[in-house]
Amino acid sequence: MRNTPRRRRKLVSKLNLSAIRADFPILKREIRGNNRLIYLDSGATSQKPNSVIAAERDFYENHNAAVHRGAHQLAEEATELYEGARAKVAAFINADVDEVIFTKSATESINVIAYSLGNARPGSEFHIKPGDRIVVSEMEHHANLIPWQELSARTGAELVWFKVGDNGRLDLSNMDELINERTKVVALTHQSNVLGTIVPLDLVTAKAHSVGALFVLDACQSVPHYKVDVKALDVDFIAFSGHKMLGPTGVGILWGKKNLLDEMPPFLTGGSMIETVTMERATYLDAPKRFEAGVPNMAQAIGLGAAVDYLNAIGLDEIHAHEVELTKAALDGLQSIKGLSVIGPKDLEMRGGVVSFAVEGVHPHDLGQALDQYGIAVRTGHHCAWPLMRRFKTIATTRASFYLYNDFDEIEALIDGVERARKYFESR
């Protein structure tokens, strides 16, 4: 293969990488000529193993029917598979099964919370009013920023935020000032999709709850990569996406504490979430059905259940340890390149498998296109995090993100590819 790296590091993973890679049919592709595909963009979306693809296909071939409807056998089978997937997700994050809500994405999950809070009637503990405060951070993905901007605009609440230090970590020095008695919501990412920074949640959740605020966690970049225990974290809501954890697109998860979910007004209304209906009014079922109006994304949920099975079979502790080693190799190698600067933490403390960087004199889009010519898929741009780009005085970065199917040869190929591209643009 043309993009085989020229040097080798004697690094060994505890994962059976050859067996894992064989489970992902897309990794057998050759692209841009004779280059093997080196996929380093799992922070955007992950690839899918055969078992997930097969689970969706099996549903459509053998069990397709609307769940929670009908007394016929197919409807019973579809409902059993769908609710079985919910139980798998619940166990994966150590939640009660009726606290897990299927949505179409993490973006929708966060919007469900924001709109439900905005629709709460005066007098409700969820009602957001002028003078209330919502706290976010500079490192948020747009999906965990814009819904809160919009909620603030609709209700007159004040939006404030934690800043990010030069080291790529949250500046918590003014936490007591930001989270005060007027604070109703604190919404933070668990791990930055740009910097790889893992947020020290225990400090912030304790402060939020001490003033009676709800804590919303964007767990898109954490749940796929290491163990997330919702009971241990003591957050109030979390949101994450199926497609980032080997599952299908079109399915996300909203988890919330049951007592909160049952009191929140639903965002979407219609069939399947109704308790009683007259021509004048309706009452709603308890969670999770309360938030699953209409025929749900059945095949996608079942595919997500298969993804959970796959991750459990490999082991999240083993996956995380493997990604830490990949990240260390990437940080060490990339920082040896002339003119390259890493945007974010340069050590492994409280850090995930995402590395963003810039090369002096080379636009990130040009670098991404050059790497693509070598078969290396990375992300370039603002990563749906414009405020964070402005914080670091840049318009874009190049981002490599790792997962269980990546190996050390691919990290070496990335390092070689960046160096080749740098030399090419330097000589022009």
Task: Chart the SSEs and their pairings.
Layout: H1 17-22, E1 30-31, E2 35-36, E3 38-39, H2 50-63, H3 73-92, E4 100-103, H4 106-119, E5 133-137, H5 146-155, E6 158-162, H6 175-178, E7 183-189, H7 201-210, E8 214-218, H8 230-233, E9 237-241, E10 252-256, H9 258-261, E11 274-277, E12 282-284, H10 298-314, H11 316-334, E13 340-343, E14 354-359, H12 364-373, E15 376-377, E16 379-381, H13 386-391, E17 397-401, H14 408-427
Parallel strand pairs: 3-15, 5-6, 5-7, 7-8, 8-9
Antiparallel strand pairs: 1-2, 4-10, 9-10, 11-12, 13-14, 14-17, 16-17
What would your notes on this structure say?
With 428 residues, the protein is of the alpha/beta class. The protein folds into 2 domains: 17-49 and 315-427, Aspartate Aminotransferase, domain 1; 52-312, Type I PLP-dependent aspartate aminotransferase-like (Major domain) (Aspartate Aminotransferase, domain 2). 37% of the residues lie in helices and 16% in strands. The protein has helices spanning 17-22, 50-63, 73-92, 106-119, 146-155, 175-178, 201-210, 230-233, 258-261, 298-314, 316-334, 364-373, 386-391, 408-427; strands at 30-31, 35-36, 38-39, 100-103, 133-137, 158-162, 183-189, 214-218, 237-241, 252-256, 274-277, 282-284, 340-343, 354-359, 376-377, 379-381, 397-401. The strands form 5 sheets. It has a 7-stranded mixed β-sheet, with helices on both faces. It has a 4-stranded antiparallel β-sheet with strand order 13-14-17-16, with helices on one face. α7 links the parallel β7 and β8 (214-218). α2 (50-63) runs antiparallel to α10 (298-314) and α4 (106-119) packs parallel to α5. The mean pLDDT is 95.
